[in-house]
Amino acid sequence: MASFVNRLVNYVVNELAVNALANSKTFQRFAVRSDALMREATSGEAAALAKSAAERAKRAAEDAAKEFMKQRKSGGMGGGGA
Fold this sequence. Notes:
By secondary structure, the protein is an all-alpha fold. It has a domain at 20-63. The chain contains two helices and no strands. The protein has helices at 2-22, 25-74.
């Protein structure tokens, strides 16, 4: 019985809170501004991460190409050996 009463009170309080916030102009402004800030932060971080990853991939490819050319010139491609 106690859990039923607890769930009922929780439901009523939840409904009151949701209705109060849904009809609050202040909360609506807060929600819109928060959403805009989060979208801006997320897109900025994503762009920075993508640029950083691209730069690291480019450096890794350049380093691999240099190492390949060095190995090729020295004749040490590691092939053969039995």
